[in-house]
């Protein structure tokens, strides 16, 4: 079971995190509240859309996969956006257009194509939850570095003793990609170790 969880989490991790998730990390990880909001939105959209796609996978011809996936993901993205606007307007303001952009993001489509489109609901739910949680943790870890060290704040509250030592570059786009690169290097190392262990078996 543990090996299966590792496989879900680390499958193509660098390829997933850098080209598919980098834009969202850059836009949403300068504040922990925004990171949690984006992470939760990704998890919910990925989970709901994957369940529906898995349930209808036998009914949809191969040539219609993409338009059906677009329709399903866009519908759940709109629903999540509306709910967040109603209950968490401050977070929606932080995320701006990037929340709506999840409708055309490759993040949920990757999950749909690789897992939901070919697997049963149980495997789909497990994979979606793990991938969504993985993405959320990545966002929060990057946000911790960027908000604390770049803005000298935590959850929007100023940290007085860090005010004179903050690294403003971390709060910008360069800082987002720098922190993401470091985190991805660690994940890549873990992935290589996992692959090596599997090959040794």
Give your account of this protein's structure.
- The structure is a single chain.
- The longest helix is centred in the last third of the chain and has 31 residues, at 121-151.
- A hairpin with a 2-residue loop joins strand 1 (153-154) and strand 2.
- The protein has 10 helices and 2 strands.
- The chain has a two-stranded antiparallel sheet.
- The protein has helices at residues 2-10, 13-20, 22-28, 32-55, 65-87, 89-95, 97-100, 106-116, 121-151, 173-200, and strands at 153-154, 157-158.
Which helices and strands occur, and which strands form pairs?
Elements: H1 2-10, H2 13-20, H3 22-28, H4 32-55, H5 65-87, H6 89-95, H7 97-100, H8 106-116, H9 121-151, E1 153-154, E2 157-158, H10 173-200
Helix pairs in contact: 2-10, 3-10, 4-5, 4-6, 4-8, 4-9, 5-6, 9-10
Question: What tags apply to this protein structure?
Answer:
76% helix; single chain; 201 residues; mainly alpha; two-stranded antiparallel ribbon
């Amino acid at each position: 079971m543990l090996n299966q969880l590792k496989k879900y989490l680390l499958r193509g991790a660098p390829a997933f995190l850098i080209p598919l998730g980098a834009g969202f990390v850059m836009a949403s990880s300068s504040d922990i509240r925004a990171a949690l909001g984006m992470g939760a939105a990704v998890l919910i959209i990925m989970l709901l859309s994957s369940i529906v796609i898995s349930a209808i996978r036998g009914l949809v011809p191969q040539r219609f996969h993409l338009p059906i996936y677009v329709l399903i993901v866009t519908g759940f993205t709109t629903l999540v956006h509306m709910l967040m606007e109603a209950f968490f307007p401050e977070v929606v303001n932080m995320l701006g257009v990037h929340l709506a952009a999840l409708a055309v993001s490759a993040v949920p489509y990757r999950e749909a194509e690789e897992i939901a489109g070919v697997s049963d609901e149980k495997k789909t739910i497990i994979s979606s939850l793990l991938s969504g949680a993985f993405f959320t943790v990545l966002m929060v870890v990057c946000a911790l570095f960027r908000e604390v060290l770049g803005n000298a704040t935590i959850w929007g509250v100023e940290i007085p003793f860090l005010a004179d030592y903050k690294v403003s570059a971390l709060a910008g786009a360069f800082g987002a990609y720098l922190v993401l690169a470091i985190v991805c290097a660690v994940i890549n190392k873990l992935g290589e170790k996992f692959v090596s262990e599997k090959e040794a078996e």
